[in-house]
Specification:
single chain, two-stranded antiparallel sheet
Length: 301
Amino acid sequence: MFSNSISARTLKAINGNSRPLNGGQADCNSAVQSDSTGVAKYNPTYIFSEYIWGPMILSLTILSNLASSIKISSSLKIFSRDCVKRSIDILGAIVGLLLTAPIFLILPILIKLDSPGQVFYKQVRVGHNRRRNQRRETGVSNLGRNSRDRRRSNVHGRPFEVIKFRTMVADAEKKCGAVWATQNDPRITPLGNIMRKTRMDEIPQFINILMGNMSLVGPRPERPVFVEELSEKVDNYKKRLDVKPGLTGLAQVENGYDSSIASVVRKVQYDIQYIQKWSVWQDVKIMMKTVLVVVTGKGAF
């Protein structure tokens, strides 16, 4: 049977000439550490970062840079990029669901105690626009098959149901209709206010990622009514639909929630910048910034 304890002689052989610090504690940047009694134990944090997380990110970055440097057709580049990104999405969503499993057990109870209504909230959003030419997007067909178009309504992208933890009172839009949330919005419950600041209400979207409707990183998915309205008011708005929407994104960490047309204009600029300069390393940096946003509550209300 394997043991997580090893002898001092083995520890010395592994760490070479490294000397114990602070009363027997080995350097934290080491695969093993010894406690005050001299018993050495594995350091799981170091092992994970050194042998799992670090090599994985390095490998994905190298593959991404290699794919971008090779002169191949644009369609093949897009395919290879999508494959890499989808692989990261699946892995990240599985890890995310495992890490947040305790939240899925506790938060539903708190939501029920906080206010009456459903635990989960589903809402139709506009996803990736897979139509590759203007003829299909506008619904004009030379063959006269408009009625057989698989997307019956022109919402500029593929509609899907986003899954979130409910943060507002039940039937929040029954009287006011579809409107943006505002600071000190009376529709937001006390617990919902905390969830929105920490982005915990977005956790169920890991399920959307596994289903293929969303990505870990990408433009924020918007509702059809807002997409239709903003496409007419904001230049290049529909370009943000050229990729899958994301759980987090450059616009989300830099611009926060939408509150006005001016904030949407800034968001679109960030989204287009992200799409044009996409790389694995950029996604990693955005996910790291997301952790800071979750801790500080930046841009939430």
